[in-house]
Amino acid sequence: MTYLQAFIIAIIEGITEFLPVSSTGHMILASSLMDIKDKAFADTFEIVIQLGAILSVLVLYYKRFLVGIDIYLKLFVAFLPTAVVGLLAYKTIKAHLFNPYVVSVSLIVGGVILILLDKWSAQKESVYETTSDISFIDALKIGAIQCFSMIPGVSRSAATIFGGVFAGFNRKQAAEFSFLLAIPTMFVASAKDLYENKDAITQSNMMLLIFGSVIAFIVALIAVKAFVQYLTKHGFKMFGYYRIIIGLVFLAYALFTGLQLHA
Predict the structure, then answer these.
(1) Does residue 168 surpass a pLDDT of 70?
(2) How far is CA 155 from the centre of its chain?
(3) What is the spatial distance between Cα 36 and Cα 42, in angstroms, rounded to a whole number?
């Protein structure tokens, strides 16, 4: 992987990590299009640089973690289903589903769901005053729905936002809880992947990881603020249309060119 390729993928990660469009799916498609040869390191790079994006949430929402232990407990409960399913099935999912075809179909199906969610949530009032007020049962529901995001192209953000609206949040609260839940989820996933592939990481590769993480952090800072403002005014439908269009384009491209599975 070159620094230019790392730069492009990191920008994609920073923009898409917190949008309901699947950052993993976009990075898999980008890696396939750029024909990155070192697939094992590319997979690790795509996961580890998410730490940079996650740090942007800590910077923007640090006050939420200073009001008491309650939010920590609820995020832990929401994280548990993903931890269990990830421990049991993530290797199998990564080995068989991380390819442009699965990503494309997931983007299309998820796009349709987002358009329907936009209509359903348009006038929805929150049953909670703040994100910290969510019940432990509803936090667990969101965590269970987040498990579907292990399928590349589904989008962790889309799954948890859908779960948040389903659990009683309005659009903005659902997005903010999704941001907060990303911290334990992606930190553990990145740390686990980095540990399992530590032998394949050289000093040169480590510099690429640091470089990519910094770029993802800077871009994500901008993207998170812009997303909340856009979501409050316009909802989810444009993200749904975008997912359908890009999913169809990449599916057609993959089928037409015989694009190799990225696994």
Answers:
(1) yes
(2) 5
(3) 7
The pTM of this model reads: 0.84
Over range 31-55, report the average pLDDT: 83
The answer to whether the beta carbons of residues 226 and 59 sit under 8 Å apart is no
Concatenated DSSP letters for the chain? --HHHHHHHHHHHHHHTTTTT-HHHHHHHHHHHTT-S-HHHHHHHHHHTHHHHHHHHHHHSGGGGGS-SHHHHHHHHHHHHHHHHHHHHHHHHHHHH-SHHHHHHHHHHHHHHHHHHHHHHTTPPPSSSSGGG--HHHHHHHHHHHGGGGSTTS-HHHHHHHHHHHHT--HHHHHHHHHHHHHHHHHHHHHHHHHHTGGG--HHHHHHHHHHHHHHHHHHHHHHHHHHHHHHHH-SHHHHHHHHHHHHHHHHHHHHHTPPP--
User: Would you state the structure tokens that stand for residue 95, as one six-digit string?
Assistant: 């080995």
For residue 72, give every residue at least 6 positions away whose Cβ sits within 8 Å of its Cβ, in sequence order, or none.
Answer: 65
As given in the structure block, the two tokens for residue 73 are: 């407990």
**Contact (Cβ atoms closer than 8 angstroms) between residue 172 and residue 231:** yes
> Domain segments of the chain: what residues?
3-257
Q: pLDDT tens digits, residue range 83-97? A: 999 888 878 887 788
Q: What is the pLDDT of residues 186-205, one digit of tens each?
A: 888 888 877 877 776 777 78
